[in-house]
Amino acid sequence: MSITASQAQSAPPAPAVPPFNVRGVAAIYKFEMARFQRTLLQSLVAPIISTALYFVVFGSAIGSRISSVHGVSYGAFIVPGLLMLSVLTESLANASFGIYMPKFTGTIYELLSAPVSSLEIVLGFVGAAVSKSLLLGALILGTASLFVPIRVLHPAWMIGFLVLTSASFSLCGFILGLWARSFEQLQFAPMLVVTPLTFLGGAFYSIDMLPHAWRTVSLFNPIVYLISGFRWSFYGSSDVGLSVSLGSTCAFLLACLALIVWIFRTGYRLKS
Q1: Between β-strands 72-73 and 68-69, what pairing exists: parallel, antiparallel or unpaired?
Q2: What are phi and psi of 69, to 5 degrees?
Q3: For residues 205 and 196, what is the distance between their CA atoms, to the nearest angstrom?
Q4: Potential cystine with 88: which of 169, 187, 196, 239 (Cβ 3.0-4.6 Å)?
Q5: Number of alpha carbons in the 13 Å side-chain half-sphere of residue 192
Q6: Non-local CB neighbours of 244 within 8 Å, separated by 6+ positions
Q7: What is the signed CA dihedral for 43, 48, 50, 53, rounded to 10 degrees?
Q8: So what's the pLDDT on residue 10?
Q9: Mind listing the pLDDT tens digit of every residue in the chain (272 residues)?
Q10: Are the C-beta atoms of 68 and 74 separated by less than 8 Å?
């Protein structure tokens, strides 16, 4: 059947693809950053004090018995591990708490009914969490430089690993905040999973110092690859290859993205 010119002119236009809602993303981002400013004592001061205490305890007590690791003084050797420990922990906590509170108070339904897409919601919350983590990382690096001399051989790689790690664990925290039904569940993964894996992931030692059997076991810990690649950017030495560390970090990031896509498509723990 042919369509006449008058019918073609009267046909309704195809629906336009909605543009990217920059204002919506900015509103979520600003809201989260405002909450961050109200909790500066908890968000910045506490991690910096903890880092200083780590240097006093580990740097003085253990550093006096271990002269160097891979040609680097022990105090300087633990800087990347401490930095990574703080950044990934805060990324996880900031993103999980940021999305959990709207669920807890019921305001998430207003967010879901607003003219913002799932991508824009994730960008707003995760972008704010990444910004907080990068700021914290810069402050901790400055604090560490007061205790030990620090050199960064590959600054671009250092920033890249820091951004990838912050983004990956912010996405992971976003998933945790959507999954949690209570504050107890919200604290489950950081306290019982992430923190032990970080301490066992070579933050304060090289896995080359372990017996062969335990070194093999450590290679199943994903945190090992994050810390190893990050330490390479400082001193040019690592426990595993740079390509393996980078590939593992990117794989974790993509896995978190895939899981978030599935959550928004199915509405799992999002509308109940």
Answers
A1: antiparallel
A2: -130, 120
A3: 14
A4: 169
A5: 6
A6: 225
A7: -170
A8: 52
A9: 444 544 445 545 544 445 788 998 999 999 999 988 887 777 788 888 887 888 777 766 776 677 778 788 888 888 898 899 889 888 998 899 999 998 888 888 888 888 888 889 999 999 999 999 999 999 989 888 888 888 899 999 999 999 999 999 999 999 999 998 888 888 887 788 888 888 888 888 888 888 888 888 888 898 999 999 999 999 998 889 889 999 999 999 999 999 998 988 888 877 66
A10: yes
Residue 132 near residue 36 (C-beta atoms within 8 A): yes
User: CA nearest 143: which of 48, 247, 26, 221?
Assistant: 48
| Structure-token pair, residue 39 | 């909790």
In single-letter form, the type of residue at position 99 comes to I
Kindly state the greatest CA–CA separation across the chain: 90
Please give the C-alpha separations between residue 238 and each of 79, 90, 175, 252, 261, in angstroms, as whole numbers.
14, 24, 30, 20, 34
Helices of type H across the chain = 5-10, 22-38, 40, 46-54, 74-77, 79-105, 108-113, 118-145, 155-179, 183-189, 195-199, 212-218, 222-235, 242-266
Q: Which residue has the tokens 């925290």?
A: 173
